[in-house]
Specification:
The chain is 46% helix and 16% strand. The protein is α/β, with parallel strands linked by helices and 247 residues long. It is globular and about 50 Å long. The chain has a seven-stranded parallel sheet with strand order 3-2-1-4-5-6-7, sandwiched between helices. It has a single domain, classed as Rossmann fold (3-Layer(aba) Sandwich). The mean pLDDT is 95. Helix 1 crosses helix 7. It has seven helices and seven strands.
Length: 247
Amino acid sequence: MSNNIQGKVVVITGASSGLGEATARHLAALGAHVVLGARRQDRLDTIVREISAEGGKAVALAVDVTRREDLSALVDKAVQTFGRVDVMINNAGLMAISPINELRVDEWDRMIDINVKGVLYGIAAALPVFEKQRSGHFINISSVAGIKVFSPGGSVYSGTKYAVRAISDGLRHEVGGDIRTTTIEPGAVESELKFGSGHQPSAEVVGEFYKKAIPAASVARAIAFAIEQPADVDINEIVLRPTAQDF
């Protein structure tokens, strides 16, 4: 019996670790053809090799999501290798927590470039393919911090994740019908995201908060659930967090 994932071509950004890596491995095990993008080519090569050794199909390309041309090249690689793209997972992210009055403006810029513009560039790369196919599925990774502002120190990070939710909602209204859009809003999940804060007091708060983190595979299963639904079912939003997390 088909799981509605087998044979689908899935592009994943931020795929060299954390949520992206876990999702790539999980979907490949379910029969998806995964196309992995991230900055660390050596890490991508290891993941592709291990997925292939287990009988899965995977290719990878080194990309920086702040460069629109890199995401266009990633989608092009998926089409050239597998003939189509069925799912675009915009996962790459940065969480640099610090109080606004620290004025860590370079970190603000970097979060906006990765968390917001990176998602938009992923949409821009995949949408023409989806429209030509008259099918496709965007999965954009936001956060519980996109529902409630992470405090203290999370104002800018939360702003970027609120933006992902708004963009996803608007996208659904504009291109829905043939194209699905899902927003995933995880709480504390074990990944490298917790290491993004350059402000040491904030990094210590984040480190303590993440002691309750759940495995990245938890998010991978949620993503698989959204993908496996029939084409006439669009899972719009999934919020998941550790049972012990009150925020």
